[in-house]
Amino acid sequence: MTQSVPLFIDGEFCQSQSNDWIEVTNPATNKPIAQLPCTLDEEMQRAIESAEKAFMSWKHVAVSDRARVMLNYQQLLKEHHDELAEILSQETGKITLDAKGDVWRGIEVVEQAANIASNMMGETVENVATDIDTYSLIQPLGVCCGITPFNFPAMIPLWMFPIAIAAGNTFVLKPSEQVPLTSIRLAELFEQAGAPKGVLQIVHGGKQQVDYLLAHPKIRTVSFVGSVPVAQYIYHTGTSHNKRVQAFAGAKNHMVVMPDANKNQVLTNLVGSSVGAAGQRCMAISVAVFVGSAKEWIADLKTEMAKMKPGAWNDQDAAYGPLISQQAKTRVLNLISEGKAQGAVCELDGSQCEVEGFPDGNWVGPTLFSGVSTEMSIYKQEIFGPVLVCIEVDTLEQAIELINSNPYGNGTSIFTASGAAARKYQHEIQVGQVGVNVPIPVPLPFFSFTGWRGSFYGDLHAYGKQAVRFYTETKTVTARWFDDDIPTGPNLTIHLR
Ligand code: NAD
């Protein structure tokens, strides 16, 4: 018997009464590890009502007390770091190192959430007119919700609910139906950290449950991370219901390789950033753009990539784990076939990959294409697998034009020894997160995660100051105090609490 994943409603981990259940599998074996309920409408309603009720008291809790919950949570997450990584590995197949990184990047956001007071400071101008001051207050909105993808089950929920809740809101999370177990453990630890009943709720399911959240009048904001078509749907549907929406979508991230770059650094970083986590990262490098003679390194790149072997989560020698599902594997294999059929040179083909002891896992070996053109589907589509495509151009200007013509704008990097080339690149490239000799430039949470163009729908990004803005409203107060009203005389007393 596999476990059934509980809902977390009104401070209780409870079983859904649903008759509609989804199997959660371990991607290394495709064996079921849990059953997930598609939450009933009345259960969804109960979660939102409880979050609304909790908001009525949580919004009055002192900001320093809200921050203290985050400090406790950070401590507990650190204590349970390895245990969380193990749960996460079971449901994603991630190797231990990647799983620990997933948890750690989430902990860093909780640290930032503990700093909430300084991010909720308003502004003041004294004497906007005689005896009149104007100042702004940053106030929470109410019930916020989050809909998260499969590929970072700890980090991405932690991008959302700690900052929303630290800012004084309450939160309903709908984790990916493929990886719900990490979220449940995150919620248990949050409760232990002292989060009051109802500030965090967890519901499960797919489109139907998401639609319920998108249409519910009490939901004020929607934070989404996932694929492009769903991000567009969430953005349009959520905003049409007058909600504030931030929707982080798919990507096609390019690394520009200049001929003056450090070759060893290029090869090591290209391999790690393209096949690491089986390429299932929204910031994975999936296109290498070789400028001029740098293309001569493709043969060595192939040698280095061929050394990367996938394997089970606890295999110390494995470079990465399986794809999330059989469906994802089939999709990636179809794209590899299309690449070959459309005339790209398949330098390294991972489509026939096997891992000893795990005959049923969703394995794909490292795959490298050269001679790729921008019309090919392996260039146009996000593959989300351990597949790197190589494009050759003559100049940096051509590289910039190519990347700016691609609809996505999540991340990019340039490897070069030239400060001038790096500066031109960072200035002209229309991508939100740029690395200079850094392959995956995900900013730490005191900045924000800043995807652009087709990789993001909305205005305010995740974590950092922008997330606090997203989860709050600004109120301005204009106040006039009359000198005549100042009390005088012996009965003037000051009451201190
Ligand atoms: P997905 O879009 O399939 O699912 C994401 C969430 O949306 C899940 O919770 C799912 O239940 C829900 N969902 C799925 N279909 C829906 C529908 N029709 N209507 C409403 N909700 C629906 O994404 P995924 O496969 O879980 O994640 C991989 C994708 O996420 C990739 O495209 C990746 O690039 C992207 N991603 C982006 C970022 C970023 O920051 N830009 C970060 C991580 C992942």
Automatic annotation (TrEMBL):
Residues 15-477 form the Aldehyde dehydrogenase domain. The keyword Electron transport does not apply. Keywords: NAD, Oxidoreductase. Coiled coil: none annotated. The keyword Endoplasmic reticulum does not apply. GO terms for biological process: L-valine catabolic process; thymine catabolic process. Pfam families: Aldedh. InterPro entries: Ald_DH/histidinol_DH, Ald_DH_C, Ald_DH_CS_CYS, Ald_DH_N, Aldehyde_DH_dom, MeMal-semiAld_DH. One of its GO terms (molecular function) is methylmalonate-semialdehyde dehydrogenase (acylating, NAD) activity. It comes from the Bacteria. CDD domains: ALDH_F6_MMSDH. Its EC number is 1.2.1.27. Transmembrane segments: none annotated. Belongs to the aldehyde dehydrogenase family. PANTHER family: MALONATE-SEMIALDEHYDE DEHYDROGENASE, METHYLMALONATE-SEMIALDEHYDE DEHYDROGENASE [ACYLATING], MITOCHONDRIAL. This is methylmalonate-semialdehyde dehydrogenase (CoA acylating). The lineage of its organism: Bacteria, Pseudomonadati, Pseudomonadota, Gammaproteobacteria, Vibrionales.
